[in-house]
Amino acid sequence: YTTKFAVRRLLDRIPAISRLSPNAVSVASLVPSALAALSLWQGWWPLVVVGILGRMALTVLDGHIAEAYDRRTRIGPYVNRVPQEFGDVMLLLALLAWAEPLWVALALAGAWLVNVLAVLPLLAGGTPQWVGPAGQPDRIALILVAAAIATVTPVPWTVVCMPLVGPMGGTGTLRLRATGPGLRAPWPACRRAPTG
């Protein structure tokens, strides 16, 4: 997360960045996501690294454009999340080519759970919770590092899945605990359901 701000400073050097649509950039992130997933399935390790780095850059770029250049839209948060969720699923499914199906299934289930626990507070008027060591950026970074290592030596991908799965229970617990205090605050009057 801290490197994101250094990346944003570099992105500001892109010509005409302020005229880009953040929603279009969000959708465009599906291209490197698909490249990373296909390359992981095929064992094209350098392209896995390229695809993941491209996805990371675009997912930082869309938020930066929206915030720094006031290009926010009401549908923006939705368009921002959907490509990331699809990208996550594609990347984890590609592990089936190299890892035991049970561990891949556990990684998918755990990723779904911690992602849902991150955004569910919004339904009750709270704020998203991104705490914990098994968040989406952490999972992607782990696969990135494993793919980089695989370019020089074989990687036991089932073993890679284990640290993807292991911290998810703790991450889910942290997100539940962080959600509680915010939801104990009074419901905003403008959002209360009408009575009588």
Write a brief structural summary.
With 196 residues, the protein is an all-alpha fold. Helices cover 67% and strands 0% of the residues.
Descriptive key words:
mainly alpha; 196 residues; 9 helices; 0% strand; globular
Write the layout of secondary structure elements.
Blueprint: H1 2-11, H2 22-28, H3 30-42, H4 45-68, H5 76-94, H6 101-119, H7 136-150, H8 157-165, H9 168-183
Helix pairs in contact: 1-4, 2-4, 2-5, 3-4, 3-5, 4-7, 5-6, 6-8, 6-9
Structural class by helix and strand composition: mainly alpha
**What is the element string, with H for helices and E for strands?**
HHHHHHHHH
What integer is the average pLDDT? Answer: 88
Which blocks of ≥5 consecutive residues have pLDDT under 50? Answer: none
Note the quaternary state here.
Answer: single chain
**Largest pleated sheet:** none
Characterise the protein shown here.
The chain is mainly alpha-helical and 196 residues long. It is built from nine helices and no strands. The longest helix is centred in the N-terminal third of the chain and has 24 residues, at 45-68. It is globular. The chain starts with a helix and ends in a 13-residue tail after the last helix.
